[in-house]
Amino acid sequence: MVESTIPVGGGPNAEPHDLVEALYALYAQVHRQTPREMSLTASATLTRLNDFGPARVTALAELQGVTQPSMTSLVSSLEGSGLVTRRRDPADGRAALVELTEAGRIAVSRRRHAQAERFAAGIARLPDEERERLAAAVPALRLLDEILRGE
């Protein structure tokens, strides 16, 4: 069992916990409210391929927490929909890499745009002072994104 390093309780440790909870709640809310044309696993797989490039089915399965046969089935479905394609892995001709097609990139872009619109609609309803406070946090949020991507 992995122990959480997120501080809990009141006092000086409450702020980081509150921030983590608030960021996760925002992410979850937007994720739930964005209409889906495919499963979360399919969407996450396309996003991973978009953000990090081609990958083997086994790597995708591990990242998504599904079995290799389940990922093979999902990739076949995505391939049939024209969202991904398979090609030989130049490092090992026996293996295949899954990569996004242009249609797959468009699907990821549309989903991100829909999610961004949900955030924008919420932000627009905030008082000016709160929007300014959010804007001031953008550099820290971008740095956090860089840190998390580097892990």
From TrEMBL:
It holds the Pfam family MarR. This is DNA-binding MarR family transcriptional regulator. Residues 16-143 form the HTH marR-type domain. Transmembrane segments: none annotated. SMART domains: HTH_MARR (SM00347). PANTHER family: CONSERVED PROTEIN, HTH-TYPE TRANSCRIPTIONAL REGULATOR RV0880. SUPFAM superfamilies: Winged helix' DNA-binding domain. The keyword DNA-binding applies. GO terms for molecular function: DNA binding; DNA-binding transcription factor activity. Keywords: DNA-binding, Transcription, Transcription regulation. It comes from Gordonia humi. The keyword Transmembrane does not apply.
